[in-house]
Design brief:
The complex is a heterodimer of chains A (110) and B (110). Chain A is mainly β and 110 residues long. Chain A is built from no helices and eleven strands. Helices cover 0% and strands 55% of the residues of chain A. In chain A, the strands form two sheets. In chain A, strands 2, 4, 5, 6, 9, 10 and 11 form a seven-stranded mixed sheet that branches. In chain A, strands 1-3-8-7 form a four-stranded antiparallel sheet, with no helix packed on it. Chain A starts with a strand and ends with a strand. By secondary structure, chain B is mainly β. Chain B starts with a strand and ends with a strand. The relative contact order of chain B is 0.34. Classes of the chains: A mainly beta (110), B mainly beta (110). Chains A and B meet through strand 4, strand 5, strand 9 and strand 10 of A and strand 4, strand 5 and strand 10 of B.
């Protein structure tokens, strides 16, 4: 059984640019969630996708958007990057009631 | 929203020592998970424990849902136990949003 995978592992962008992060869910899991973890803090919920539809969103602006594909993989898109978007972005897939996390993508915005 | 507090914020142990980490939450929950975040940022599932007691090797956890707290016990600590321990809870909101605590940073020295 393959766990949750994310790509890329690291990314450096400049202010104003756009970025796309990718996640493959664990086999058999149809729900994917995205979290942002700033340095020294706990992860914060961005949004969740279930069967290709967004079904829950945290307190993040609309420039954070996502997609889920028929194979349940997912993308997180962030437009008009700001310095405060620098963080570790974590993807999680849900099996029964438990969430399992990928290794994360570390985004640096200069 | 629900508040999740963890204590202590930092803990330094000698190898072989035992420790107890605490997680308090401000409202009823239908999911509680403990995670260990390693130095590379990977969140590793330790326990899914909305209530009751579980054990896995040197680790065990107890959640008293009626009193809104959970405890994580680490016995005979090893240097590989170092990292940040997070408690995360979920309320019944129609979608699975984990709210993370502030974390306990553990350093186990040889």
């Amino acid at each position: 059984e393959t766990g949750v995978t994310q790509s890329p592992t690291h990314l450096i962008k400049t202010r104003g640019q756009q970025v796309t992060l990718r996640c493959s869910s664990q086999s058999g899991h149809n729900t994917v969630s995205w979290y942002q973890q700033a340095l020294g803090q706990g992860p914060q919920f961005i949004f969740q996708y279930y069967r290709e539809e967004e079904n829950g969103r945290g307190n993040f602006p609309p420039r954070f958007s996502g997609l889920q594909f028929p194979n349940y993989s997912s993308e997180l898109n962030v437009n008009a990057l700001e310095l405060d978007d620098s963080a570790l972005y974590l993807c999680a897939s849900t099996g029964l009631n438990e969430q399992f996390f990928g290794p994360g993508t570390r985004l640096t915005v200069l | 929203g629900i508040q999740v507090e963890q204590s202590p914020p930092d803990l330094i142990l000698q190898e072989g020592a035992n420790s107890t980490l605490r997680c308090n939450f401000s409202d009823s929950v239908n999911n509680l998970q403990w995670f260990h975040q390693n130095p590379w940022g990977q969140l590793i599932n330790l326990f899914y424990i909305p209530s009751g007691t579980k054990q896995n090797g040197r680790l065990s956890a107890t959640t008293v849902a009626t009193e809104r707290y959970s405890l994580l016990y680490i016995s005979s600590s090893q240097t590989t136990d170092s990292g940040v321990y997070f408690c995360a809870v979920e309320r019944d909101t129609g979608f699975q949003k984990l709210v993370f605590g502030t974390g306990t940073r553990l350093l186990v020295s040889p």
